[in-house]
Amino acid sequence: MKAGWWQPWMVGITLWGAMLIGNADSQTQSKSEQQIQCYACGLAKVHPENDVVGSYGTAIGKKMYNHSCTELLDNLKDGAVANRFMRTCPVGVKSCFGATGFYDHGDNDPSNDLHVQFLGCSEAKHQHSYGCDRDLQNVDIRDKAKRKIQVEIDVNLCFCSTHICNDPLGELLSSKAAIQTSPSVVPTLVMGFLVASGLRWNF
Q1: Which keywords does this Swiss-Prot/TrEMBL entry list (predicted)?
Q2: What is the distance between the alpha carbons of residues 184 and 203, in angstroms, rounded to a whole number?
């Protein structure tokens, strides 16, 4: 993958983030309810400072779950404890999510394909069913000349509801379990953040 191709996706998650990621204001609610923790990465807008002032950084005990999921994966593959990417979800949130997107450029060079990944806390206050929903989505984007083009994105969206259950190397995100989800949910979520991203393709 060419360096920087994923960055527009990372910058433009406002709409999708508004639907999936819990607002930090809910942290001020009653602390009597147990809060779930999830791995979080890939969503620059979900900054640790918005949850706990002074919590962001690379030092021991600090959080950096607004960084790329590539950094989280590197930590996990090295056997390191990736607690910098563990987010305590807002009060009332009962599920974690993991989402991936893949675009096949249609040639013989895998480096021209695009892979993105997002992990985090679901915004919904109800418990999602365990499993994944996969779909192909036609998304209108802008190429480098700012012309509107349509590309097909392979999207996989997963939910689970236990502590740190959305491990990118774990069972959930490597499984093909079905989830009882309305067919309109994934297109709405994913197309929202893709359109917001202003993704531009390098032709």
Answers
A1: Signal
A2: 31
Read off the DSSP letter of residue 82.
Answer: -
What is the 8-class DSSP label of residue 188? Answer: H
Segments of the chain assigned E as strands? 37-39, 86-88, 96-103, 114-121, 131-143, 148-160, 200-201
Closest Cα partner for 153 from 177, 180, 187, 110?
187
3-class secondary-structure state, position 102: strand
Instruction: Give dist(CA 107, CA 19) in Å, integer.
Output: 34
Nearest to 116 by CA among 88, 151, 145, 143: 151
Task: Give the integer Cα–Cα distance in Å for 89 and 40.
Answer: 10
Query: For 94-109, what is each residue's pLDDT tens digit?
Result: 999 999 888 877 778 7
> Cβ-count burial of 50 within 10 angstroms (0-12 exposed, 13-18 middle, 19+ buried)?
middle
For 80, residues 6+ apart whose C-beta sits below 8 A from its C-beta are none
Distance CA 48, CA 66 (A): 7
Q: What is the reported pTM? A: 0.71
| Sequence-ordered alpha helix ranges (H) in the chain | 7-11, 14-20, 48-51, 69-77, 171-174, 185-197
